[in-house]
User: Fold this.
Amino acid sequence: MGYKLAEDAKPQVILLIIATVITIVLWFIPFADYLVYPIRLFVTFIHEASHALIAVLTGGSVQSLTIASDGSGVVYSAPSSWFGAMLTSSAGYLGTTVFGVMMLVLIRKSVSPHKVLVGSGIFIGTMTVVFGILSPIFHFLSLNVAFSSVIFTVGAGLLLTAGLLALGKFSSYRVANFSVAFLAIQCLLNSLSDLKTVFFINAPLVGSDLANDAKNMADATGLPGVFWVFLWIVISVVMISVGMRFYAVAKNKNSSVSVFED
Assistant:
């Protein structure tokens, strides 16, 4: 059974290609990081929120979720079990990939991009309040993060929430549609880029002893961190491939080869 580019997907695919090209070009422009700084914080929020959600869903607790001004983040959690700890450690990069794919699937399913932006804003706002404010207050005596980190996290989370809600409420359809595609691509590409960095951090002979999700997995399982990074990369690529195929192509029952129409 072959596949071809769906006619109704062509405008969205063009939009996706534009968003991807812009993202890659920005990687090579000096000081472009400042232009996409809020988006980097958005991706970090999704990454850390994925850790926090899985920790709670597997029966654990979350002491805090904090975002740093350099775009990094950390979640302090108490897992309920060894298996819960493994799922929580794996959730960051894979969760970010899932979020990006979901954004693409939603707009491919003709869900209004305004609703996707509002939903994303509500999600960031909820994570900020629950894990950025309430969790640190509840675990105040055992909290081992700086108060300034909590303040930055709350400020960044509320500003991102306000920005996403404003885009969802007041932007034109074209702007909203591009914003969703761009944010989705940022989640996907940044997740893969970060995995590449973590791969080298954990690579034998080359790597360092920096704390990261792969090192947590290595400590929990005894398997080297580079193994887990490689596994996450494979899973992420598979999810992206499936999502992109769903997003862009339709089944062609009359063909036994892959066909892409102009």
